[in-house]
Amino acid sequence: MSPVFSHGDLRLYILNLLDEAPRHGYDLMQALTDRTGGTYSPSAGTIYPRLAKLEEEGLVTKTVEGRKTVYAITDAGREEVRAREGDLEGIQAGLADSVRLIAQEVRGSVKDAMRSLRADLAAASREEREHAEVTPADDARARGREQLHRADAAINEFRGRTRSELRSHVARGGELTEAAVDAIETALARASDAVAEATRR
């Protein structure tokens, strides 16, 4: 949020700044930023059209010094500033109020951010404690599940490869005798026994 100048207030405030001293456009932008505590930073598109209008009205003049264009207030501009001193005091008071309100909003935002950060840190701390509380048994179960997936993959690969070889053999006209199937069943039984033995260790 920025302090909002009412209609004509920015024009008068620029005249007031030039009444203090001649300035170039960037100087004016910086002065406005400084006077509002950094809460209002006008762009070149805001300042230069107003300077051109003030020059057109005969309230400021401009001179080119090297690469800079310096603006200075004229006697007519000074007369307007003097005639509107009451308005200027109101502008100053309004800007002070705006800066105060913005400062309060910033403090509120900082407090909200700090509360959120504390909540995030507390959550992260809880999560770290939960991970730290994993028991050796939990860890062993996790490793067991990982190895079970590995064993499943190996068995499925063996089953798929064996079935494919048998089907291809028969499809090519090969003979699959009863003795061969008996031998396969015997080999599978031995493999099953070996698995049972390995899991008892």
Protein model, in words:
- With 201 residues, the chain is mostly helical.
- The protein has 2 domains: 9-105, Winged helix-like DNA-binding domain superfamily/Winged helix DNA-binding domain (Arc Repressor Mutant, subunit A, Orthogonal Bundle); 136-199.
- Helix content is 75%, strand content 7%.
- The protein is built from 7 helices and 3 strands; from the N terminus they run αβααββαααα.
- Strands 1-3-2 form a 3-stranded antiparallel sheet.
- A hairpin with a 2-residue loop joins strand 2 and strand 3.
- The longest helix has 48 residues, at 85-132.
- The radius of gyration is 42 Å and the shape is elongated.
Q: What name does the CATH topology of the largest domain carry? A: Arc Repressor Mutant, subunit A
| Structure annotation, total helices | 7
* SSE succession: HEHHEEHHHH
Point out poorly predicted stretches: none
Q: Judging from the principal axes of the Cα atoms, what is the shape? A: elongated
In terms of DSSP E residues, the strand content is 5-15%
Rg from alpha-carbon coordinates: 42 Å
CATH architecture of the largest domain: Orthogonal Bundle
Largest sheet: number of strands, sense, barrel closure: 3 strands, antiparallel
CATH classification, class level of the largest domain: Mainly Alpha
Structural class: mainly alpha
Strand line-up in the sheet with most strands: 1-3-2
Average pLDDT for all residues: 81
| Assigned CATH superfamily of the largest domain | Winged helix-like DNA-binding domain superfamily/Winged helix DNA-binding domain
- Distance N to C terminus: 71 Å
Question: How many DSSP E strands?
Answer: 3
Integer count of domains: 2
- Percent helix among the residues? over 70%
